[in-house]
Specification:
Elements: H1 17-23, E1 36-43, H2 48-54, E2 71-73, H3 77-81, E3 89-97, E4 101-107, E5 126-133, E6 136-137, E7 141-144, E8 150-158
Parallel strand pairs: 4-5
Antiparallel strand pairs: 1-3, 2-7, 3-8, 5-6, 5-7
């Protein structure tokens, strides 16, 4: 995984500041190190128009994720492929501002995911989550929890 910028703090905010002013929000990463990366986000085709129009809006985050209600990304496109529809499939390449990251591990089987009650610890902006299925450690997922921490830069559409 390669950092987006030699000095990522020069590339902030990722989301146009006018959008934040119109919504009455302050940028979630103001005054913090960006720690920006290009990551993949696989999604169902029904979600593509909303992401393209609204970005990754925290009002629409899936509350049933293993690491709580957030936007999930991967540095390995193979992991993101597990979340796409059958052909044609859609995957975004996104600029993601991870900020301060905390490592979390989730062992299965468990009856439920960590769910909507899970929040990163105070002062942490994102989670690097790892899940173990039947003793096999899966690739890392990167989860952000606030609007403005990610921006779709490319939409990949492909058949498989």
């Amino acid at each position: 995984m390669k950092s987006l910028y030699p000095n990522p703090n020069e590339r902030y905010p990722l989301v146009d500041s006018e959008a934040f002013k119109q919504q009455g929000r302050g940028h979630p990463m103001f005054g913090k190190p960006v720690n920006g990366f290009d990551l993949f986000h696989g999604t169902k085709k029904d979600a593509v128009p909303s992401i393209m129009q609204n970005g990754f809006d925290d009002h629409f985050f899936n509350p049933k994720g293993y690491f709580g209600a957030g936007a999930y990304f991967a540095d390995d496109p193979a992991l993101s492929m597990s979340f796409v529809d059958s052909s044609p499939s859609h995957m975004f390449v996104c600029n993601v501002a991870l900020g301060t990251t905390n490592d979390e591990h989730y062992n299965t089987p468990r009856t439920t995911a960590l769910g909507t009650d899970f929040r990163p610890p105070h002062g942490v902006d994102s989670i690097k989550g790892r899940i173990t299925y039947s003793g096999i450690l899966r690739q890392a997922e990167y989860i952000v929890y606030r609007y403005g921490q990610c921006k779709a830069t490319y939409l990949l559409r492909f058949d498989h």
